[in-house]
Fold:
Amino acid sequence: MTTSGSTIIPCLRYRDALAAIDWLCRAFGFEKQAVYADGDVVHHAQLVHGAGMIMLGSAQNAGEWGRHIVQPDQIGGRETQSCCVVVADADAHYATAKAAGAEILIGIAGQDYGGRGYLCRDPEGHLWWFGSYDPWQA
Structure:
């Protein structure tokens, strides 16, 4: 197998996927790699961050896969998994995300295992951990 990025790619659903894409790029530093949409419905999008990627689509995009996914607000704002993103400067990233309106759940702090990081929610309630600890370099 050959790949230039991660072989594990988180996939998310958003009610307003086009707005989420713009917000994720502005607040978290993602870059659009591909967006396939018809009007307001995003069938598939790929956003990259360094060598990592997330894929996302519209929650209202009917299909077999989508019937197995719920939005955080449908289960009391909870998640069963979240994205963890390695950033070079966690403090600068924290400031940008906070200024963009990310809901900070765990403030920026040094971690016992190394690096600094924080936990936040995006506008549709998905959880994100950003930190400078790089397990590949530890």
